[in-house]
Specification:
Layout: H1 11-14, E1 28-29, H2 41-52, H3 62-75, E2 81-86, H4 88-99, E3 106-111, H5 115-123, E4 127-132, H6 141-151, E5 155-159, H7 171-182, E6 187-191, H8 202-208, E7 216-221, H9 223-227, E8 233-238, H10 239-246, H11 256-267, H12 269-291, E9 297-298, E10 305-309, H13 313-322, E11 325-326, E12 328-329, E13 340-344, H14 348-361
Parallel strand pairs: 1-11, 3-4, 3-5, 5-6, 6-7
Antiparallel strand pairs: 2-8, 7-8, 9-10, 10-13, 12-13
Helix pairs in contact: 3-11, 4-5, 6-7, 13-14
Length: 362
Amino acid sequence: MSRRPTEMIRQDVQSMHAYAIQDSTGMVKLDAMENPFELPPGLQAELGARLGRVAIHRYPGARIEDLRQALARYVDLPAGQALMLGNGSDELISLLAMGCDLPGATILAPVPGFVMYAMSAQLQGLQFVGVPLTPRFELDEAAMLAALREHRPAITYIAYPNNPTANLWDAGVIRRLIAEAAGFGGLVVMDEAYQPFSSRSWLDEIRAQPAANAHVLLMRTLSKFGLAGVRIGYLMGPQALVNEIDKLRPPYNVSVLNAECALFALEHANVFAQQAAVIREQRARLADALARLPGVEPFPSEANMLLVRVPDAQRCFDSLKAQGILVKNVSKMHPLLAQCLRLTVGTPSENDLMIRALQNAL
């Protein structure tokens, strides 16, 4: 009897659900924390001409190194630190799990958090330990310390700010968690995907206290910078440590077109900085408007999204969708997120539409 080809696929993979992307055709798309602003027409034309000159018949070469160096200058990379590129942060998360796949190894993170931390652990055959946040979405320091001591994780992820809760956690608590992980040699990965919208960065802490952060890696992405379609993530940390992770990176993991787009964007960083400033202003305006709606509780945000609790998340989501507004219903992701929606901060006009649609939904 012949066997089905799917029998060669791991059973746990067959039991998984693929990452779902909502169809946004014809919708006001406020579900994926994207920068809502397009490039100005003049820059579109300039970028198009530049991409037309890229040698797409060649494998990526020195231009990728140009991008790595440009990012190092952009972040003012501290002495003794190295920077590596990934095809988005997702690839970097997978490479970290692969590199730390020792027998019995564990990955730990607060929950609710970014789903790829747990998924990368599962796909690599590692144990994932999720430590619940407090009801107000703060780090539960006692529970985190207890989990660190019990499981001695190879990697502890700390999103700064967190997704989907959008808040920054207490720096003093994070310092103590980092010190605890240092005691058994565990890595701590600070995930700063939403750094353009945040009032603080752990990179300043690394500069001020390099010895205390000698086992800390810092991860960022250009997706929230304004290049979600380009797929560029980057990882920074002590040179010897980054060099080991870099060995796992597939050859040519960043395309020449993506690299050229990123270099172009960095050369016009002031344009994207102005967009981020508008998004931060709109975030404050949106939070204020949401707080005035009956039964709506917006939570503090340092990202380009707002987590809100509504009386009935599914009904509200369905009503918004029927009105052409696409947001993310996170109410079933974790018990702490009961009746919560995640709203991306859009353009001023998009935010006006979302506020009116929420008024109607309620």
